[in-house]
Amino acid sequence: MNFFELFLIALALSMDAFAVSIIKGMELIKVNPLKALLVGVYFGLFQGVMPLIGFFLARSFADYVDFGPWIAFVLLSFLGIKMIISSFKKEECSVEKSIDLLSEAENKDSICLSPLNMLPLAIATSIDAMAVGVTLAFLQVQIVPAVSFIGVVTLVMAFFGVYIGSLCGAKIKSKAEIFGGIILILIGVKIIIEHLLQ
Fold it and tell me: Dihedral of CA 36/69/57/116: which sign?
């Protein structure tokens, strides 16, 4: 496998993380390089680790890899539906809302980027990468540089995805959660369709 083929694989694997990063950018109230990097690290780390797991456990883990797309579908659909439902909940106007809005924004962003919110997304969007790791086990590939490259490409794509989402989010803020929920569900459906067509 040459560098160009590996780059195409890394780019393809990063697309789900890129799409979800755009959604994260819409959700965040205040985007800065540190927050965008944090999103990138979550997605990049899992996109790098999952193929490594698939590579080293190619034979013994084959049954679970086959079941993986269904786990991704359920996780993404659940998160998508939850996001759509929460978009219909009206925000309560606090009398003290004007007191320290910046602190409130940072608190909301911290919740949005917490492990509780980020880990399910990072796992769900990287399960297909485990199957790629199984494939790499049967090719002449230096696995550590390969998965490191996949992780870095995903990190960069997710980083820029957050900024793209923040620009879009400013224009369609009220619809961002509905849009994001639909995208998550569609990604889950896409993963299942690709799995069934294999």
Answer: positive
pTM of the model: 0.71
CA distances, 148 to each of 49, 51, 153 (Å): 9, 10, 9
- Least Cα distance to 65 among 12, 9, 134, 14 occurs for 134
Q: Cα–Cα distance between 2 and 9 in angstroms, integer?
A: 11
- Please, what is the Cα angle at 52 between 25 and 6, to 5 degrees? 70
CA distance 57 to 40: 26
Q: What is the pLDDT along the chain (198 residues), one digit of tens a residue?
A: 678 878 888 888 888 888 889 888 888 888 899 999 999 999 999 999 998 888 887 656 555 556 667 776 777 787 678 767 766 765 443 434 434 444 555 677 787 888 888 998 899 888 878 877 777 776 667 889 999 999 999 999 999 999 998 887 655 555 656 776 787 688 778 878 887 887
Q: Determine contact, residues 185/82, Cβ cutoff 8 Å.
A: no
